[in-house]
Design brief:
It is a single chain. It contains 17 helices and 19 strands. The longest helix has 19 residues. Helix 12 packs antiparallel against helix 16. It is an alpha/beta fold. The strands form 4 sheets. Strands 1, 2, 10, 11, 12, 13 and 19 form a 7-stranded mixed β-sheet that branches. It has 3 domains: 166 residues, FAD/NAD(P)-binding domain (3-Layer(bba) Sandwich); 136 residues, Protoporphyrinogen oxidase, mitochondrial, domain 2 (Polyamine Oxidase, Chain A, domain 2); 66 residues, protoporphyrinogen ix oxidase, domain 3 (Orthogonal Bundle), CATH 1.10.3110. It binds flavin-adenine dinucleotide. Flavin-adenine dinucleotide binds next to helix 1, strand 11, strand 14 and helix 17.
Length: 460
């Protein structure tokens, strides 16, 4: 059985790049085909007038030792920069003002982010019975039941907007926050489970996402895909895969468009590291049900606005990571990162860089506006929430028409259709952000696991 290579990876976002790198490291012949002009997918850094801003992810949560292990092998560990100490403080908007979220149980007692009745309600949490293991609940229903309505509004809702740009009434707790559900099922309570798991994690050298630090790179997030692309000898950009054919001898042929020409490549395994819609189009001829499941995964639009202000034009001290906005506050933005407070070298001297997110499931009409209008909305909102006395020096707007996959109710059964297709067609693999987590850390972990599974089969 002679093929062009061992594994074809479709898509050079972080999922595809890490999968390809890990396969190469295991001695397999890999080729990566990417439709866009550059590697990195949603990860990208740009510079303008002495500032450095991110198009997509701004930082990576240090949630697994696999991340540093990867950076060491890529020889970019010395480029890594941790978020500043001040970034440990995170704000939530309450009554139109940024209020610091409590960073310790002691601070929780005195915080203005939650009312006394919300704090008292939380004391009941350990005594609330877990849901039936078969029940599928939204994160909103879960939070309301265990933590109370106010904790949902000011604690959970802004985080769901911050991670998924999503609607907590639609997002499945089991699919999107499996650890929360496991805490409830295994320990009967989030608070009791949290205490028990802290001990367990310490034994495995892992840190909880909620308490862990985040990092970027001296020259921005682009450092990571650039290093992966350099290490991946057979990456072809401007190459859009259009069709997959599976042969009876467990090999695959891909057809792709490159510069107006059609090319074909064959391999013993294929990894689809592309968003759900693109994966659906490719697998439709192989398995209609899997294609329908993939098509059902929604991706709301999001606008990311980089704004550079004179430091003296903003009244707020910007002494934190940024703020998130609860839906109950009725604003037109989801949140804002104090980018130049978190990482050095992001804005010119005496200036600050703020990165604001707007749109998502909450305000789709904002993400649909033209760049000038989005920038105006962001300027107005930042003006009132942070006390800006001048307009920004400049702004850049990045539109993501399909930003983040929504792990909504029914997501786990949709994933079963993908599992079934993988089991029925050995050698076909799915590794992208609609499966096993959207964060860059989750993608690295999933890519690592995908590469290990493929290597085991292909090397046999
Ligand atoms: C605005 C924003 C902010 C974010 N912030 C953070 C953050 O701070 N921290 C964090 O951890 N995560 C963050 N995320 C999430 C994280 O960035 C993404 O989940 C992750 O980068 C997705 O990687 P991926 O490789 O799965 O997909 P993608 O990056 O989407 O890559 C898929 C690739 O497949 C290619 N492709 C598509 N179709 C084809 C085809 N037919 N043939 C060939 N190639 C194809 C695409 O061109 C693309 O390059 C953010 C996401 C967004 C949008």
């Amino acid at each position: 059985m002679s093929t062009d290579c061992d594994v074809l990876v479709v898509g050079a976002g972080i999922s595809g790049l890490v999968t390809a790198f890990e396969l190469q490291q295991r001695g397999l012949r890999v080729e990566v085909l990417e439709a866009g002009r550059r590697a990195g997918g949603m990860i990208g850094t740009r510079q303008r007038d002495g500032a450095r801003y991110e198009l997509g992810p701004n930082s990576i949560l240090d949630s697994t030792p696999l991340i540093d292990d990867l950076l060491r092998r890529l020889d970019i560990i010395d480029q890594r920069v941790n978020a500043s100490a001040v970034a440990a403080r995170r704000f939530v908007i309450r009554n139109a003002h940024p209020v610091a979220l409590p960073a310790s149980p002691g601070a929780f007692l005195t915080t203005r982010a939650f009312s006394t009745s919300a704090k008292l309600r939380l004391l009941r949490e350990p005594f609330i019975a877990p849901a039936s293991p078969d029940a599928e609940e939204s994160i909103a229903a879960f939070a309301r039941r265990r933590l109370g309505a106010e904790f949902l509004e000011y604690g959970v809702d802004p985080f769901v907007a911050g991670i998924y740009a999503g609607d907590p009434e639609k997002i499945s707790v089991a699919a999107a926050f499996p650890r929360l559900r496991a805490l409830e099922q295994e320990h009967g309570s989030l608070i009791k489970g949290q205490i028990a798991n802290r001990r367990e994690r310490a034994r495995h050298g892992e840190t909880a996402k909620i308490s862990t630090g985040s990092f970027s790179f001296r020259h921005g997030m682009q450092t990571l895909p650039d290093a992966l692309a350099r290490a991946t000898t057979t990456l072809q950009v401007d190459t859009a895969v259009e069709r997959i054919t599976a042969a009876a001898n467990e090999t695959f042929t891909l057809s792709a468009r490159r510069g107006g020409e059609t090319m074909t490549r064959s391999a013993r395994a294929v990894v689809l590291a592309v968003p759900a819609g693109a994966a659906a189009a490719l697998v439709d001829p192989l398995d209609g049900e899997a294609a329908r499941s993939l098509s059902a995964i929604g991706y709301p639009a999001l606008a990311v606005v980089a704004s550079v202000y004179r430091r003296m034009a903003i009244a707020h001290r910007l002494d934190g990571f940024g703020f998130l906005v609860p839906r109950a506050e009725g604003r037109r933005i989801l949140g804002c990162l104090f980018s130049s407070s978190t990482f050095a070298g992001r804005a010119p001297e005496n200036s600050v860089l703020l990165t604001t997110f707007a749109g998502g499931r909450r305000n789709p009409e904002i993400a649909a506006l033209d760049s000038e209008s989005v920038a105006r909305v962001v300027t107005e909102e930042l003006g009132s929430l942070l006390g800006c006395t001048e307009a920004p020096r400049w702004q850049e707007v990045v539109h993501w028409p399909r930003a983040i996959p929504q792990y909504t109710l029914g997501h786990l059964s949709r994933m079963h259709a993908i599992d079934d297709l993988e089991a029925g067609l050995p050698g076909l693999h799915f590794c992208a952000s609609y499966r096993d987590g959207v964060s860059v850390g989750d993608r690295i972990k999933a890519a690592h696991a995908t590469a290990a599974r493929i290597a085991e089969r292909v090397k046999r």
